[in-house]
Design goal:
three-stranded antiparallel β-sheet, 46% strand, 181 residues, 3 helices, 19% helix, single chain, alpha+beta
Length: 181
């Protein structure tokens, strides 16, 4: 190990995250501090059918804008729920879709330079439409079905900027060859 923790203290906490400050000692013996954002893992779902993805668009307060992304989320009230259960639930809540087939693609970290949060990536296929079940925080969320070529053009033009969406898509592209990709 190249960094040793000397002490830790929580400097901020709410139901969704904790910010911790650690006093550390580096391999060379020097000391310093390290800030760590602790957040639970989340699930991200790539809903795919007939050469297109189902995306959601909502206002993202920290960046003051509306952006397209794959459905994703975590369940703070059910921390013991499996990633697949969360993925299926988030897909239903945000899009109204139910997947007949859900394939696990893998786990990635969001920003391990400052956070422990990971994401579990799923491909959802054989989709059946239904009603959305939005939470108050998602009241402005809208769904859009976007062909794969248009999705890629939106990435290149800077209209899709979510790193979780982009890395999930990259993982899909590297693992699967499906029509339209």
């Amino acid at each position: 190990m190249t960094i040793r923790t000397l002490s830790s203290r929580d400097v901020y906490r709410n139901p969704w995250m904790t910010v911790r400050e650690d006093s550390i000692q580096r391999q060379d013996g020097s000391t310093g501090i390290y800030g760590v954002v602790l957040k639970p893992d989340f699930s991200i779902v790539i809903p795919y059918e007939e050469g297109a993805f189902h995306l959601v668009e909502q206002y993202r307060y920290p960046v003051q804008g509306r952006y397209l992304e794959f459905p994703m989320g975590t369940w703070e009230t059910q921390v013991d729920a499996s990633p697949e259960t969360v993925a299926a639930g988030e897909l239903k809540e945000e899009t109204g879709l139910v997947a007949g087939k859900m394939t696990y693609l893998g786990q990635l970290f969001i920003a391990y330079g400052y956070s422990n949060q990971g994401m579990h990536v799923f491909l959802a296929e054989e989709l059946t439409p239904g009603a959305q079940e939005l939470s108050p925080e998602e009241s402005d969320l809208v769904c859009k079905k976007v062909p794969v070529a248009e999705f890629e053009a939106l990435i290149l033009s800077g209209h899709i900027k979510d790193s979780a969406t982009l890395s999930a898509y990259c993982l899909l592209r590297m693992q699967r060859r499906i029509p339209g990709l």
